[in-house]
Design brief:
The protein has 294 residues and is of the alpha/beta class. 32% of the residues lie in helices and 17% in strands. It is built from eight helices and 15 strands. Strand 12 and strand 13 form a beta hairpin.
Length: 294
């Protein structure tokens, strides 16, 4: 990416993941001078590992029932602004063909997540977006007199009347096989008081019934989790009640827009969270650019 001289911008996007890149693209397309900042050495890390490295871009049937966290009506209103059909057309314009699998998930026909990331970066380039990384943001301050934001880091300062926060949650997708399934199987037998070494035909009728009950009707209580290192989605965030849905602008801090996982909306695994990123990024980018230019 080219390095522009420090100075003022129309829109600064903090976080160049799925939602951030999408917001930057649509802000740029609306005519704004856009700077996107990201602290990562490698852009789009979550995109590259999503769907087992294939990136399930969206789901063929997306509605508010697939999400939790905020009002279903609010989620529906956002999703209607940029739906699955628009997502498909966006990537088609950059030569990315999507395929629908039996699960309803949509993947690039290349089965390579980098295809999606490259399309987003190409769209950002075409929209005139400048992307700088690794440039971590350590402070965002708003001048109450003129409403201009100063975005600051070890790299220096940048200024804009509009800022889009798309920094995501705390979850980092990670997969791995640790043999836990075998431990579960030895345990879904100890509960039923059945010796794991016993063959099925050696079990008594009562033992078989006990094993079925343990496998199919065992009440379980949650005692903990594996932490954000293994999580794929973050629950919680900025409530949609604090956001103007038509612009994704904060009701608390004028000029600050929000997109993606930073909002209190989390979808099921299977492309739903990417669709949320596309929809909120589309709205925030266009609205921020339009207001900044006025």
């Amino acid at each position: 990416m080219t390095e522009a001289a420090p100075g003022s911008w129309d829109v600064i996007v903090v976080g160049a993941g799925a939602a951030g890149l999408f917001a930057a693209v649509h802000a740029g397309r609306a005519g704004a001078r856009v700077l996107a900042l990201d602290g990562a050495k490698t852009l789009g890390a979550k995109i590259l590992v999503a769907g087992g490295g294939r990136c399930n871009v969206t789901h063929h049937a997306v509605d508010e029932k697939a999400y939790a966290g905020s009002s279903p009506n609010a989620i529906r209103n956002v999703l209607r602004r940029f739906g699955v059909a628009e997502t498909i057309r966006f990537f088609e314009a950059y030569g990315v063909e999507l395929k629908r699998e039996d699960t309803g998930k949509l993947f690039p026909t290349t089965d390579d997540a980098r295809t999606i990331l490259n399309a987003l970066l190409a769209a950002a380039r075409d929209a005139g977006v400048e992307i700088r990384h690794p440039q971590r943001v350590t402070e965002i301050a708003r001048n109450e007199t003129d409403g201009v934001f100063t975005v600051r880091g070890d790299w220096g300062d940048a200024h804009a009347p509009r800022v889009i926060l798309a920094t995501g949650g705390k979850a980092l997708p990670k997969s791995g096989s640790d043999g836990a399934g075998y431990d579960y199987a030895r345990a879904l037998c100890e509960i039923a008081a059945v010796d794991p070494a016993t063959s099925l035909r050696q079990l008594t009728r009562d033992q078989r019934k006990a094993l079925v009950r343990a496998a199919c009707a065992l009440p379980l209580s949650v005692e903990g989790d594996r932490g954000f290192t293994y999580a794929e989605v973050t629950m919680g965030g900025v409530p949609l009640a604090e956001v103007k849905l038509e612009t994704m602008e904060s009701r608390v801090c004028p000029g600050l827009h929000l997109a993606g996982e930073i909002l209190d909306v989390d979808g099921r695994i299977g492309g739903f969270n990417f669709q949320w990123a596309w929809a909120t990024g589309f709205i925030a980018g266009g609205a921020a650019a339009s207001t900044a230019r006025r």
